[in-house]
Design goal:
The complex is a heterotetramer, with two copies of chain A (about 375 residues) and two copies of chain B (about 325 residues). By secondary structure, chain A is of the alpha/beta class. Chain A folds into two domains: about 300 residues, Thiamin diphosphate (ThDP)-binding fold, Pyr/PP domains (Rossmann fold), CATH 3.40.50.970; about 30 residues, no CATH class. Chain A has 15 helices and eight strands. In chain A, the strands form two sheets. In chain A, strands 1-7-8-4-3-2 form a six-stranded parallel β-sheet, sandwiched between helices. A two-stranded antiparallel sheet of chain A has the order 5-6. In chain A, helix 2 packs across helix 12, helix 3 packs parallel to helix 4 and helix 6 packs parallel to helix 7. Chain B is built from twelve helices and 14 strands. In chain B, the strands form four sheets. Chain B has a five-stranded mixed β-sheet, sandwiched between helices. A four-stranded mixed β-sheet of chain B has the order 5-7-6-12. A three-stranded parallel β-sheet of chain B has the order 3-2-4. The longest helix of chain B is centred in the N-terminal third of the chain and has 15 residues. Chain B starts with a strand and ends with a helix. The chains are: A alpha/beta (about 375), B alpha/beta (about 325). Chains in contact: A-B, A-C, A-D, B-C, B-D, C-D. At the A-B interface, helix 13, helix 14 and helix 15 of A face strand 14, helix 11 and helix 12 of B. Strand 1 of chain A pairs antiparallel with strand 1 of chain C. The complex binds thiamine diphosphate (TPP) (2 copies) and magnesium ion (MG) (2 copies). One thiamine diphosphate (TPP) sits at the interface of chains A and B.
Chain lengths: ~375, ~325, ~375, ~325
């Protein structure tokens, strides 16, 4: 047989609570208990409100660049919900919802974007890595963290989040390949929001799905409606089971959409149609879940009003905590370079000088030099 | 003449070179419709179309690696790396290939490539958006490295870079992208690579700097009281040691200012060369006012990290008093 | 439909002249004219002989490390044969056969491994890139070369060669992704020889095929018997047609085997079984083609003897040319750094010194320093 | 005591640290059954098994990136990069992550990682197998950099590196992997990072070097006639400037020797520091004997590129005559 088939595959797409809020009982029943669903909904709304507040903080000069999460809340929150509290979450920067569900204080995210490293000093017991700025790099860290768990015989896995753009980076490939070939229990969770700043998804991946990236590694893979928290939970549970039982990695493409600008430094009107955005607004994960809850009698306007008030209060309190932290100490950026500061670096810190004479004024003949104190800022 | 910012001067240079030479094309992340995150390529996509202004996948090694191929085939690619902090993934293609292809093939293959990279701190940006990695590429033989500090220089140097037959890294100090305007000729012109600019003359002391630090040096000098010669290197490799030598032989004292960390920063090389060439003329040790040997802190503290007029003024006084 | 299929695919395997020299007339007839086949066979044998001679040169200290091509001759030669003379060949270091077919003088390969850059100064009209040492990096160059052809409206394509190990590198991924998404006519030709030095193929790719790497990019892909020159030619023709007509890339996994050590610096007995090697020896592409030619009456012992003699003569002449080239000039490694040598570098060249005083002896008081001349070597 | 080569001393250090600490694991290309292409990990796979000696995919960014994850989780990975020329693809993970994780997280996450890398020329290897990129990593804050020049130092420094709570790059000069043997204690011992070794004492001139160049310096010194103090830095960051300062204040003259290209090589930093600290003691400019500002040529010419005893001896004489 001169031409035979060497390989065949097929990839599933999962949708449980669809765009019209139709619910598939077969897959969806019992997936998320009512009480949890309400709490998830509440968290999503708080996260959405933080986006609005952060936007204003940036515009009024109280914060630097901020990437809104708007429209993508179901994806990371569903994942965080479906995982154990001691599984590693290894985020990019559009997973606030999931991180908050895990327990990361909101002010840490604010601090990060206010240009303060203390926003990254995440308590170990949260098993969250800090936001990753260089795209795609964190996938390898997740792979290493999960490998360490396997090495120690723990059942812990790592779930790492990234965008469609990240799947173009070499590090994406290397992480997927390490995990697949060395049997490392990582969940690779792609938030395909169709844009990487202004670059459309087809420039990152012209294949019909991003899910098929995983075929390259012989890795299990699935595509789901990322704006449907039920689908997300379904897929992540499946992935986690495989990871925990077989030590195998899993790839999930969660199809979603970035409703806001890339960041506050971006103006998406330059490159995408309003019609596209409007279409996606009808698929907003928050609307969908609210409709579902309402239909089931689990939610009403009074609860919504109370939630809005609570969201305002909680976010305002977080902003207050982030803004009232004392300014960082200049010594901090010296003292955290190494476990023990090398003598030369300590000298730089103590003198705040790099020039040889400034570090050792005894070399100068005559009087000590008086200069206006460093301009404060 | 037009009164332009640094961004506008670079934009104009790109337009003129693309008009002039069909072989010139631009590629990178968000350089197309969006005009680049700093709007340096604004309007180019509209003017020159999809073929010559290309949004690529998000992959820096890919951007530089394919640019090397384009260049070897005889085109004149101008890839953009969105921020200097994302040069890392492209390091290998730059240093293992762009820099080596000519010598590896004894001239049979060449890489006429100009990589544009916004560089440096001071704009309250997130992590890895404020670094100064130029030294790494100055140390790598086979690459030319440029960092202008003014709109006029930027235009002339960029045009020279694009026409240069070898790979050039063109660092654009983002802090001064729009900080001031300058008269820039509307016609195309070139400036020689490897020639410094004497920003102001003096005979008491020499200051050597480049990029946005030059502006800080000016501020320190303007505080007055001393006759100081400020040299803006502009090209960091090959660098104009003759200009530095001539000045230091005249002044006998020198301060070097840069944003990159001190240890193994380019300032060390300049200092070592001054010692080699001007040993008997030096009245005090060459001083360096630089970033510290730490990671550039997140922006709340970035101004504590960057050399500013205060620190430079102090070094001037100390050097004078030595 | 909560679970639907998002993607399905299947990958072909092609084999025309199989291990037992059975020939599939349907696919194979007319693929390679008899005269060409004889010439291809002869070239393969010469290339194999070069391997033997190079091995001895290395062992006797007349050459540095050398990677033998033994067992893989059909793959690169078939590709070079199926392409136009003006398509770019962008090799790794195990494609001597293909490069020689294109016309690269054998002594250039020898010079390369004798530590002499002049072995890389390939005449432009051969459209061959020099051997690539850092694994996987050349795939991006090939993509750029093919992109330039497209930019200029030429019909030229690029074919780049690499091993199974190379498919683990980030640059592999980025090159495939650029080519697929930007529609660049590159043929990615993987010589899967099952080993990357001592690391077995499953550590590089645990999926059933390497061909499925291409599924990640929505790229056309095929697997073939790389020890069967007919399969190789069939696949490369198919790929070239797609590239030239549609401007699309194509991936080919050529299954082959490295019969020798990784390089002369390696000892494969440390990590692989002799039984495996012996099994593959029976699939040697040279034996197979010889059997085929003999059956068809196109070859006989007399021709074989004549060929052996010619191979010896040709290779000996190439060695002679490589060894009789005058030593490289020390100035060469300065003069080729830039189109125009910077003054400081010219000073380093002219003085052969880096120390400031040595470059400007006028600084030294007293007599010129006399030292023994540089030890020659 | 055992009489060991550099390779054997490193191999012994690895075995002892793996015996001592379950958290130590080795990963890289060909480190397993094959024992590494230089046989540095010979026997380890057999002794410690698949779990602790891991052959990885051929991907340097992957090797370092996953090692960072392993280290953050509390293990002590020792990745090997097969040759210094293949550090390129790992540059970004080293400089953007390993070097920054502690400061980025204000100490919440740390990266106790030791990267082993054969380095340097002189073994007639192919392209990109003979480079000296140490400066790039000395310039990068957040990493410690080591390059031993003897079996005894190698063992003690490697053990210290593995136990160090921060990322360390451990460069192994491949030219002297098997060039000579030295008495090395069989028991484990550590040597402090950041302390130089005075190889021989003298008062006429100081020579500062590291790695396999130290051997070339010894040969130059052994030609005799002068009282020379040779300092082997051993640790390149943090580096022992106190030792250099003390010596140069005594001798008044200094030559620095390294294989890497001159411009922005680590020699420049040492020279600049000497000027800062010993200005009034210097009787001649500090000289640098280094690789040229070219790509390391293919091996037919590599010995013309590398500083050898002849070039060093000449610099000594010139410096003395200044
Ligand atoms: C290595 C690297 N290159 C470039 C950038 C600049 N950049 C920041 S976000 C972004 C787009 C990311 O797109 P995607 O991965 O789809 O995530 P999204 O923002 O859509 O959530 C780019 C190019 C970066 N941060 N890191
Ligand atoms: C970037 C890089 N890393 C490591 C090496 C060292 N090395 C040389 S060949 C090789 C194995 C290559 O395997 P493969 O790609 O399968 O090609 P093959 O040798 O089998 O033809 C390795 C690891 C290298 N040359 N480049
Ligand atoms: Mg996206
Ligand atoms: Mg192979």
């Amino acid at each position: 047989m001169p031409i035979k088939s060497a390989f065949t595959t097929t990839i599933d797409h999962v949708s449980i609570l669809d765009v019209n809020a139709n619910f598939d009982e077969k897959l969806g029943a019992g997936l998320i208990p009512d009480g949890d669903l309400v709490r998830l909904y509440e968290h999503m709304c708080v996260c959405r409100h933080l986006d609005e507040v952060a936007f204003k903080l940036q515009r009024s000069g109280r914060m630097g660049t901020f990437p809104q999460n708007m429209g993508q809340e179901a994806a990371s929150m569903g994942a965080a919900y479906a995982l154990d509290k001691t599984d590693w979450l290894v985020p990019c920067y559009r997973e606030n919802a999931g991180l908050f569900w895990r327990g990361l204080p909101m002010e840490m995210i604010l601090l990060h974007w206010m240009g303060d490293e203390r926003g990254n000093a995440i308590p170990r017991e949260l098993y969250c890595m800090p936001l990753a700025i260089p795209i795609g790099t964190q996938l390898l860290h997740a792979t290493g963290l999960a490998w360490a768990a396997k090495y120690r015989g723990e059942k812990r896995l790592a779930c790492t989040f990234f965008g469609d753009g990240a799947t173009s980076e070499g590090d994406f490939h290397e992480a997927m390949n390490f995990a697949a070939n060395l049997d490392i229990p990582v969940i690779f969770f792609c938030q395909n929001n169709f844009w990487a700043i202004s670059v459309p998804g087809k420039i990152q991946c012209s294949a019909p799905t991003i899910a098929q990236r995983a075929v390259a590694y012989g890795m299990d893979t699935i595509q789901c409606d990322g704006n449907d928290i039920f689908s997300v939970v379904y897929c992540v549970r499946k992935a986690a089971a495989l990871a925990r039982e077989k030590g195998r990695p899993f790839f999930i493409e969660a199809v979603t959409y970035r409703l806001g600008d890339h960041t506050t430094a971006d103006d998406a009107r330059r490159y995408r149609d309003q019609a596209e955005v409007d279409a996606w607004k009808t698929r907003d994960p928050i609307l969908r879940i609210r409709k579902f809850l309402t239909t089931r009698g689990l939610w009403d306007d009074a609860k919504e009003a109370a939630l809005a008030e609570r969201a305002q209060r909680d976010v305002a309190a977080a902003v207050e905590r982030a803004e009232s932290i004392p300014p960082p100490d200049r010594n901090d950026f010296f003292n955290n370079m190494y476990a023990t500061i090398p003598p030369d670096l300590a000298l730089q810190r103590d003198t705040m000088q790099t020039h040889g004479i400034g570090q050792d004024p005894s070399q100068i003949e005559g009087a000590v030099i008086e200069l206006p104190a460093k301009t404060s800022h | 003449m037009a009164n332009l910012t640094l961004v506008q001067a670079i934009n104009l240079a790109l337009i003129q070179e693309m008009e002039r030479d069909e072989r010139v094309l631009i590629l990178g992340e968000d350089v197309g419709l969006n005009g680049g995150v700093f709007r340096v390529t604004e309007g180019l996509h509209k003017r020159f179309g999809d073929k010559r202004v290309v949004d690529t996948p998000l992959a820096e090694s890919g951007i530089i690696g394919t640019s090397i191929g384009l260049a070897m085939a005889g085109l004149r690619p101008i890839p953009e790396i969105q921020f200097e902090g994302f040069l890392g993934p492209a390091y290998d293609q730059i240093c293992s290939h762009a820099a080596r292809m000519r010598t590896r093939t004894r001239g049979a293959m060449t890489v006429p490539l100009t990589i544009r990279i916004p560089v440096g701190g001071g704009i309250h940006a997130p992590e890895l958006h404020s670094d100064s990695p130029e030294t790494v590429y100055i140390h790598q033989p086979g690459i030319k490295v440029i960092m202008p500090s003014s709109p006029y220089d930027a235009k002339g140097l960029l045009i020279s870079a694009i026409r240069d037959p070898d790979p050039v890294m063109f660092f654009e100090p983002k802090r001064i992208y729009r900080a001031f305007r300058e008269e820039v000729p509307e016609d195309e012109y070139t400036l020689p690579l490897g020639k410094a600019r004497v920003v102001c003359e003096g005979n008491e002391m020499t200051i050597v700097s480049w990029g946005s630090s030059v502006v800080q040096c000016m501020q320190a000098i303007e505080r007055g009281g001393r006759s100081i010669e400020l040299i803006d290197l502009r090209t960091l490799y090959p660098f104009d040691m003759d200009a530095v030598e001539a000045s230091v032989k005249k002044t006998g004292r020198c301060v070097i200012v840069h944003e990159a960390p001190k240890t193994c920063g380019f300032g060390a090389e300049i200092a070592a060369r001054i010692m080699e060439r001007c040993f008997l003329y030096l009245e005090s040790p060459v001083q360096r006012v630089t970033g510290f040997d730490t990671i550039m802190p997140y922006y709340k503290l970035e101004l504590d990290y960057m050399p500013d007029a205060d620190r430079i003024a102090r070094a001037i006084e100390e050097t004078a008093a030595y």
